[in-house]
């Protein structure tokens, strides 16, 4: 394998306050759940090295404050993101209803080259909570994700560590694909190069 | 809560030992340790005196305190009765009417607001048992709700972080409170003058009222830090402007090397300053330390203007670690601020005060040396900012640098000295713009407005307009910095191409570029000839194949090596270049299709070869992660603007959006999940 610069993947986690963004990120990075995370003020940052198809990549995970709207971090913060994770709480319908505006606003702020293919991943969190409390069915969430161009959807629990690893694996994979497509459409005009690249890095899932 | 006896001792500790508010403040600034009036005395009383009731004698301010208490009672009745299950007005109102006058609608809004606040209160200071008590959580929630619904905070509403400011205040007031046995049927107003003032002030029944009053006083100045700013994409919150100002004006004035390093790393100041400032550092220090920081802050500066410089002092304290840090390490340092083990926390405020009076790199150096016993690398008798490149050159042979090109010009040494010129140019940049002077000037004005000793007579209006002016000036400056950075980058690119040409033996080509760079460096008004960005400009001029010999030095003096590298070729800089579109040999990626991009910076940045320049000795010009920069430069300014060549973009990964067929994979993942399918 030629010596390539180890990719840095910028992942931004968005969603209403209290849906469990901080808990999910900590479950993924530190493998633990604590009932004592404070409300996020502004943003927080963790990194994690992961292997994606035998390639070592560094994920820069940006946890944001749910109450914060986009003005306080500024456009520059969102620029250069490789993947955006939208989190809602399956027991809170309002947090699901706002997903669409989180997504739209993110696209405006980050203004990726090709908004239609920019990778999002939706996480429906807190599925460990008793069944009677659930407000958004899996079907409803999946319909939404399909309508938005086939966004991968996971139902998670940061508390019970359900599906967290799997979700972030897809997040890493999609972020890497995004990073590479950006890089290549930036450096090459020759479509042949793109095809070659696709073959070597195509995601095997 | 304190026992009456303990409270009495502490109360006397304050009023017997200090004759005035200023002597009390003086004592705080001296950091007396166990003797500190906030430690041995009553912190809540000190804070009240500092930020709420500047008159020292209790007889004078206790009446005000009473007014505050009853105001709060009235506000509670006004704003909390509904949610506490009081009467819901006339029974014949349609509960579904979405009309603000409808008490049901108001009730619904209140329930939402309370849930929002409670969500944060429950997560507030998780490691302090005090805040886990339901009665305390209710108090916190009530007072925040009253604040958000009444005149003080209505325009703001509830904002995350307010809960933590209120929590610290509540803790302090509660700790000093005493249990007063209420005399039968006694009402607030009927307390007569003979009563014990201490018991009135510390009366445990009014913990929430007094916390609210303190909170409103803090919020008078903290409010704008929480202001969300204008709605919509172009808007940017005041906290972002403030963060920029702290980084690009204040830190730049005191430690330009650090300021430039953070900028080069692309660490956005608001990313950490939002939390530092909004919470008044409550997450950056251990709780006990935090209280000491607030003691010193409130004692010194009722308006909380000093907060900006406390941020600078905190950055200076970790400047050596930051200078060595890459992007991730730097962010980790500022987002998980290392706790200062061997210095008292109040020193951050002390440093801030020093910087307020010495806002210059000399002032910064004093603070840096104070804690590290190290001096920033540039031995500066003047306040010359240091470029991040300085250290990288330190290891190079001085011999090479001083080689006179007229004696032995080799491409390497010639280029080296041009690189030196570039570095030198950056060196004097901020000085030329008078960053320091501008900032110092503005601070002078501010200082003259705010008398330092004695009880402060604040001029909030003047100060804030003064500050606004500063922010405006700063914005201009930042624009200029950005334009100049771009110029530098283009020059760096031309330089790079010139070096390549020289390496390939094409000396004429190389020299043409190098001399243009040099001219541009010597004459800042000279327009950069972007045609030199072309990878291979066909040689069409009678260029000398040998290294240029020197003649007719350009304007200005040059103390570095080459005094001029003028060749006949550089006349071309003024002329149109014959062939704009280069012949791209295989492996060169000149993107003709990108030239139409509306962003004028686009061409030069996208053509920057990533590895070679990044690996070169002037990689610092690009910031530490050129790849990152290049990527963001692809972001189109207008979002509809799809470029030609877009089609080449790969729709590869099977998890990619648009490929709906592929969510077989998702379903597969879902299959593993808990819960119904
Ligand atoms: N039962 C359950 N509770 C969770 C789960 N994830 C988070 N929580 C709880 O939900 C609350 C909010 O979690 P956070 O992770 O702080 O939420 P957040 O999205 O980061 O919130 P903001 O920082 O305010 O934007 C906390 O009390 C968590 O303990 C989960 O998977 N299951
Ligand atoms: Mg959070």
From TrEMBL, chain A:
**Matching PROSITE patterns:** RAB, RAS, RHO
Q: Name one Pfam family in it.
A: Ras
Q: Name one GO cellular component term.
A: fungal-type vacuole membrane
- UniProt KW keywords: GTP-binding, Lipoprotein, Methylation, Nucleotide-binding, Prenylation
Q: Which SUPFAM superfamilies does the record associate with it?
A: P-loop containing nucleoside triphosphate hydrolases
SMART domains linked to this entry? RAB, RAN, RAS, RHO
Coiled-coil regions listed in the entry: none
Return one GO MF term.
GTPase activity
Q: What's the protein here called? A: Uncharacterized protein
Q: Which organism is it from?
A: Ascodesmis nigricans
Automatic annotation (TrEMBL), chain B:
Please name the PROSITE patterns in this protein's record: TBC_RABGAP
State where composition is biased (Basic and acidic residues).
630-654
User: Which InterPro entries does the UniProt entry name for this protein?
Assistant: Rab-GAP-TBC_dom (IPR000195), Rab-GAP_TBC_sf (IPR035969)
Q: What Pfam family does this protein match (any one)?
A: RabGAP-TBC
Q: Does the keyword Nucleotidyltransferase apply?
A: no
Region of interest (Disordered), residue spans: 373-411, 538-575, 630-661
Record keyword Coiled coil present: no
Name of the protein described by the UniProt record: RabGAP/TBC
Signal peptide span: none
Q: Which PANTHER family match?
A: TBC1 DOMAIN FAMILY MEMBER 5, TBC1 DOMAIN FAMILY MEMBER GTPASE-ACTIVATING PROTEIN
What SUPFAM superfamilies has UniProt attached to this entry?
Ypt/Rab-GAP domain of gyp1p (SSF47923)
The Polar residues compositionally biased stretches are 396-411, 560-572
- Annotated organism of origin: Ascodesmis nigricans
One GO MF annotation is:
GTPase activator activity
Extract the coiled-coil ranges from the record: none
What keywords appear on the UniProt entry?
GTPase activation
Q: Give every Rab-GAP TBC domain span.
A: 37-301
